[in-house]
Amino acid sequence: MAVDQNLPIVTPSTISSSSASSPISLRKSRALIATNNSSAFIQFPNSPRRSSSFVPIHRPQASPLSTPVSSIRTNTQSISNAPSSSTVSDEHKRNHSQHGSNPILNNPLLNHRKEKPKPFRQNFSTDLSYTTKLNPSGKQLSNNNQPENINKQQQMSYFDKTKYDYITRCKSSSPSKRVTLNERLKADSIVIRKCINRETYTIPEHCKDCPGENGGGVTLTADESKDLDAVMKKEFFNLRASDKISLWRSIPDTRHELCKIVKYPDDLPSASVVIVFKNERWSPVLRTVYSVLNRSPKKFLKEVILVDDQSDIEEMGKKLDDYCEEHFGELVRVLRAPNRLGLIKAKSYGAKHATGDVVVFLDAHCEANTGWLEPILARIKEKRSVVLCPSIDSISDHNMAYGNSGLGSVGGFWWSLHFQWISIPKRIRDTQKSKIDPYPSPTMAGGLLAANREYFFEIGGYDEDMEVWGGENLELSFRTWMCGGSLEFVPCSRVGHIYRPGHPYNMTGAKGKGDVHGRNSMRLAEVWMDDYKRLYHVHRGDLKGKDYGDVEDRRAIRTRLNCHSFKWYLENVFPEKFIPDENVLAYGEVKNPNSHLCLDTLGKDEKRTIPLSVYSCQSGGSANQYLSLTKDNQLRREDGCAVTSDSVSIVLTNCNHSDHNQTWTHVNNGTLVHHPSNRCLDVEGLSSNDQIKLKKCEPNKLSQQWLFRHYSK
Which segments of 339-467 does DSSP mark as H helices, in order? Predict the structure, then answer.
């Protein structure tokens, strides 16, 4: 609440003569009037050792300047019969005791927002920007509605006294030290940090009819779209659309209807939310913060920690510090990394400074949805050793539209140790009692997760010798499962995330040079994958012999925690994962000896249907030429199986054991026959990069003879 600048300054001469003979000692200072919409209060100056006193008075609905101060009536008594300063102070304390002892909540000078009229004994807002107003994009608008009849000296005296009252009440120390005009900026810092916390923070009003409200997409004008390609190339998302949207915009509640009726315990653990940023932009970072603050129960959210990993964008420096201090107080901390840490180490840095029972990691371009925090905390309360991920909704990188991702997927991995999304296996769905029950996932994407803070460090936190980004998500996933914990997704916790095609910062590291993912994944393969690291090296043969650093401390964690083998993980956690060289008839490169051409994916993206082609054989050195013939008679890669739709061309598409069109038979150094077409793979007339064809089977035709590199015994 701010002092109402439309009310006149109250001096001894403006109070009725009867009041002058009252026991109230006006001394030489002015009395102040503060208002809360229809309610008003007179503040009588405090003594050096006593808090300021307030007398509630009735404020008529007419313009305050049209009502003489002398005609204002008190709620219970006239000012002329007002008690002494000490008596009023005692009464004020009794009022406080009925609704909490926090002097900030009950100080009528601390609410700057124009809210609906509230009784005096209700809590007030504590955003202390009493000389400024804030628009939804975070910019300050000057407040120039001060009464014209107050001269400069009176103004400064007026605000000095108001500021002094803030300090004495917020610091809660006695005796209080008067803050001079020259110390104003320092006083602001002290006051706001002390006054705004998780108990007193209030949610800003939504910007009605503003762009992007209710999660809608933003359409740019022709002028706004000029040079947009350059912006997209630099930021990897539509920054201009983001900047048009309110920092606290509304988004649709994407939870399942059953989630909305769940009742959670009142004694859930507290949470610290850690958000790391490196050259991220103002609007997505602050929108992430506001979404967390506005949609998290105050009693459970202990703090938000912003970790700046050496950003060099000016607006993310002091401007961000000042904004967070002014509008979030002690609820949001900005930590500046002493040197470039990279995302992995910066997360650890933030977690080590966290004080909540649960540490939650979010990317700096998210929007937490309604009820996102409670189901996470409730599950961690039930099981301390669980690492949780919210269900991730999609925010468009082109127009910032918020989209529902449905009931979700689970995390998997490629043998190259990249993350992938896969459908929830039937065995998991069959074990769920309800669609909204948390469900296990073999791996996680890594940007958004939560864990008991102590447990997180007990099992080794992050591998801090990994650089920048990449591989840490799979390392933590494998370690959690293998060392006695579990990894789960929570359907009732939903967080929107901008999926960007790139990163607006340098992704190289000093040790891994340009390939930080390669070095990081080598470390996790050496520590956690046992003999299965052979399959990683099939895909990353270029890394053989490269330095991956000292991993003895990470191996010591595995020994200390008596962790399971990676084979146990594959059999018990991820039995759906295809192992290319186990329980198969043949595997490796598939070669036509006559032409020296091998089946090849040509490095195409296998997350979608791609043609199966041929290329010069690489003597087993190319992962693109690694295929398997399974005991189920499928010719396949990790996830894609060979199939035809026209009995001529062959493509790789998602494997389906019930699809008989994916059946193949083969004899050693013989033909590869597709069923039910009964046609054979043939390289006749083909050269490197051509798509492989099916032709009528002909006995002893050399172009139809195929040889796998390995045959199972």
Answer: 342-353, 374-382, 426-431, 453-458
Contacts of 209 (CB under 8 A, 6+ apart): none
Q: What's the residue count for the chain?
A: 713
- Of 165, 195, 225, the domain-final residue: 195
Which residues, listed in sequence order, are joined to residue 614 by a DSSP beta bridge?
599
CA distance 449 to 387: 7
Inter-residue contact 252 to 260 (CB < 8 Å): no
What pLDDT, in 10s, does the model give residues 193-243? 557 887 788 899 888 889 999 999 999 999 999 999 999 999 999 999 999
Q: What is the mean pLDDT of residues 471-489?
A: 97
Contacts of 51 (CB under 8 A, 6+ apart): 89, 92, 103, 168, 169
How many separate domains does the chain show? Answer: 2
Q: Where are the beta strands (DSSP E) in 414-481?
A: 419-422, 439-440, 449-452
Tell me, what's the pLDDT at 112?
A: 34
Please report whether residue 618 resides in a domain: yes
Tell me the percentage of the chain whose pLDDT exceeds 70: 71
Which residues on neighbouring strands pair with residue 271, listed in sequence order? 301, 358
Q: Strands 39-44 and 32-36, how do they pair?
A: antiparallel
* Domain that residue 652 falls in: 584-711
Upper half-sphere CA count for residue 358 (Cβ side, 13 Å): 29
pTM of the model: 0.75
Question: What letter represents residue 122's amino acid?
Answer: Q
pLDDT digits (tens, 9 = 90+) for 501-519: 877 776 666 654 678 999 9
**Residue 373, both tokens:** 């925090």
Measured between alpha carbons, how far is 102 from 569 in angstroms, rounded to an integer?
A: 52
For CA atoms 677, 678, 683, 684, give the dihedral sign. negative
Do the domain assignments include residue 695? yes
HSE (side-chain half, CA atoms, 13 Å) at 501: 9
What is the pLDDT at residue 276? 97
- CA–centroid distance for 283 within its chain: 14
- 390-420 pLDDT, tens digit each: 999 999 999 999 998 877 799 999 999 999 9
Q: What is the CATH number of the domain that holds 685?
A: 2.80.10.50
Using the structure block, give the residue that is written with the tokens 């600048």.
5
| End-of-domain residue from the set 140, 172, 195 | 195
Q: Please tell me what DSSP assigns to residue 532.
A: G
- Residue 440: burial class (beta carbons within 10 Å; 0-12, 13-18, 19+): middle
Closest-CA residue to 294 (of 157, 202, 408, 159): 202
pLDDT at residue 692, rounded to an integer: 97
Does residue 272 surpass a pLDDT of 90? yes
Identify the three-state secondary structure at position 557.
helix
Tell me if 47 is assigned to some domain. Answer: yes
In a 13 Å sphere around the CA of 121, the CA atoms on its Cβ side amount to: 10
- Asked whether residue 503 is domain-assigned, the answer is no
Residue type, 143: N
Strand blocks (E) in 355-507:
358-362, 366-368, 386-395, 402-403, 410-413, 419-422, 439-440, 449-452, 486-498
Sign of CA dihedral 614, 619, 623, 626: positive
Sorted by sequence, the CB contacts under 8 Å of residue 278 that are 6+ apart come out as 308, 309, 310, 311, 343, 346, 505
